[in-house]
Design goal:
The structure is a homodimer of 198-residue chains.
Chain A: E1 2-4, E2 9-17, E3 23-32, H1 39-57, E4 62-65, H2 73-91, E5 97-100, H3 102-110, H4 117-128, H5 137-152, H6 175-180, H7 184-197
Helix pairs in contact in A: 1-2, 3-5, 4-5
Subcellular location (chains A, B): Cytoplasm
Protein name (chains A, B): Crossover junction endodeoxyribonuclease RuvC
Active site (chains A, B): 4, 65, 138
Chain lengths: 198, 198
């Protein structure tokens, strides 16, 4: 699951990543709140929508943007509030949370850490074989974060990949560290992988 | 319940506020995490400690500092993450959340919006009749936020006070707005108040 955190528009995405790093689309959406709403109601909405996604899809991991102080500071505060809600919802369920910076996400999907939003949208569309670019940009960004995570590390298709014909990849976590905390889905996947190789 | 949000030291406090604005101490504590811990684990700790307090004391309201961009921006991001976790935990339980700025809190307990931490600590100690100043400052601040909320508005002793001999107060919410969403404890209190007046 990938999340582009925000109070006004929080992008949520779900993808599947195979052992050979093939990404496929499952769902994408936006949890939106109005600036006029009370802050606690805005945060609650983000929290409950995230809960629903987590309980519906039971992802192996949640990847979210690491927030830096690049934007306008008031936007950053709202984004960090939303992020705190999303991370709480995942962590309390025992779902591992991973952080990627915007430039890591851009670099993963376009090859350039400085790519613009349009390029990210086009590449996400191409990678997932979608018919059109997901809108708004927060939806495309949420998918990009999920793809980035699957490719860079911690995902089923990278860090814990045990198959012989794996592509090389950079930035993934050490295999041993991943093995230490496999989710039930990852164990099932590893068993299926092992059978295929026999 | 009052919360001074933070990732390194999150101050938590519980007080009782009577109809005549008399505040009494129930508990104070710190949820602390180390900067070296993974961000999701730090946020989870703040979330679960808050949950425990909420479930133990079932407060009528949670008051928390409204975050502004006055501090160092990286501190603000961590504080907003913690705040998002605390607000989620309260809001998902239907506990109303209220925000007060640091200067509102200082003004409420010391009379000056520019009071230093030592003055806030001394006044909190005096108001609650404690034997010594709560340490660290985050603990005293959490108590100050709770006191501020009880006095300024939204608390049982102010906004919804129906007794005839109420002191005047400033900054409270309109009585009607409060009546619209009374908690069970507030209803019990109002009934008890009504009986006393007969």
């Amino acid at each position: 699951m990938g999340v582009d955190p925000g109070l006004t528009r929080c992008g949520l995405s779900m993808i599947d990543m195979t052992a050979t790093r093939k990404a496929s689309f499952i769902n994408v959406g936006i949890a939106g709140t109005a600036a006029a709403e009370p802050l606690d109601e805005r945060i609650l909405r983000i929290f409950t929508v995230t809960q629903t996604w987590l309980d519906t899809y039971q992802p192996d991991a949640l990847a979210i943007e690491r927030i830096f102080a690049q934007e306008q500071v008031n936007t950053v505060i709202g984004t960090a509030h939303a992020s705190g809600a999303v991370i709480s919802a995942a962590a309390v369920r025992g779902i591992p949370v991973f952080f990627h910076t915007p430039s890591e996400v851009k670099a993963a999907v376009t090859g350039s850490g400085r790519a613009d939003k349009a390029s990210v949208g086009r590449m996400v569309t191409k990678i997932l074989g979608l018919e059109k670019i997901p809108k708004p940009a927060d939806a495309a960004d949420a998918l990009a974060i999920a793809i980035c995570h699957g490719w860079r590390g911690g995902g089923i298709g990278s860090g814990i990949n045990m198959s012989a014909n794996t592509q090389t990849h950079q930035g993934s976590r050490p295999v041993r560290a991943q093995h230490a905390k496999l989710t039930p889905a990852q164990r099932i996947w590893l068993e299926a992988e092992a059978k295929t190789r026999r």
